[in-house]
Amino acid sequence: MKDQIVCVAKPTPEVLKIYPAYEAFFPRLYKALAAYHMVCVLELPDIWVRDFLPVQNSRTGELYRMIFRPRYANYTPTFTAQINAAVQRLFPVRDCSVQLDGGNIVRGPDGTVFCFLGRRIFRQSAPDEREIVEDELFAALGAEHIVWLPREAGDKIGHIDGFMQFMGDTLFVSDERFDPYLQRLLWRRLEKVRQVYWNVKVRFLPCVPDETDPSGLSARGVYVNFLATSRAVFVPQYNLPQDKEVLAIIKTATDKPVVGIDCTEISRYGGAVHCLTKEYEGNL
Predict the structure, then answer these.
(1) How far, in Å, CA of 116 to CA of 23, rounded?
(2) Which domains are delineated in the chain?
(3) Are residues 54 and 61 in contact, defined by beta-carbon separation less than 8 angstroms?
(4) Which of 28, 83, 90, 235 could make an SS bond with 226 (beta carbons 3.0 to 4.6 A apart)?
(5) Cα 2 vs. chain centroid, distance in angstroms?
(6) How far apart are CA 118 and CA 282, in angstroms?
(7) What is the pLDDT, as a whole number, of residue 125?
């Protein structure tokens, strides 16, 4: 893996009006990342940079901008337009006409791309629409194979980085044992992953529901939302009994430093370390 630059959002007054907890969280995040990487702090309207910053083609290094038009949380058409305009100003991008948030993209060891299957990804219901979308994603991501995993019924966000992450030849998965329906769905998803990587090592990370959040948007307790870079692994911590257990599990799969970052408050907005960062190889 080549060395990487990690992008994060600047805690501007406009951002802090929406996410006041980001003011205290940002220095912790920046300090942890800057100990290992060059950090690019971008002035953006939103903090969840994983979802809307350009994706990088793994073969050419080119940046591609997906259609970012979510229908959850506080993403009004006006706010989304501001985000897209900021991205256009900051990056030399090529356009990919697929509606797919970056949080719904996970790459496997050989570059295979995994996404949750959502109807809005496809622009029309023509029989060949999936083939068209996949061709565009192949071009944008530099991937040769795309695997669509079943999405949870009623999932408001549909981001796969809250369910699974690869690190080398190990697949980390959120343990859904607290919910029988999600447990069955988990095994259906793993069956599809094993069709591609039959001998993958699967490690389960705790997934602790945030009982204080009636909206279902909180990511507190979602440990699989970590960031594995070329130099370190940055793992969310939530002041829960499972914190140390998760660090120990991840350390068994890597020789890189494993760095815990307290995401207790920021996660209540709907994400953690992986959602708040975007890594790129080479110079931007």
Answers:
(1) 32
(2) 4-281 (3.75.10.10)
(3) no
(4) 235
(5) 20
(6) 32
(7) 45
As given in the structure block, the two tokens for residue 127 are 């029989």
Answer whether 0.90 is exceeded by the pTM. Answer: yes
Distances (CA, A) of 112 to 28, 47, 78, 88, 179: 32, 27, 34, 27, 29
SS3 198: coil
d(CA 268, CA 252): 28
Q: How far apart are the first and last CA of the chain?
A: 17
Residue 140: Cβ-neighbour burial (10 angstroms; 0-12, 13-18, 19+): buried
Residue among 202, 253, 209, 229 at smallest CA distance from 8? 229
The separation between CA 163 and the C-alpha centre of its own chain, rounded to angstroms, equals 9
In angstroms, the Cα distances linking 234 to 5, 43, 251 are 14, 22, 11
- Give 7-48 pLDDT, tens digit per residue: 999 999 999 999 999 999 999 999 999 999 999 999 999 999
52 token code pair? 């809307």
Alpha carbon distance 131, 134 (integer Å): 5
Per residue in 153-175, pLDDT tens? 877 788 999 999 999 899 999 98
How far is the C-alpha of 92 from the C-alpha of 24, rounded, in Å? 31
pLDDT tens column, 230-274: 999 999 999 999 999 999 999 999 999 999 999 999 999 999 999
Q: Which tokens go with 271?
A: 């994400």
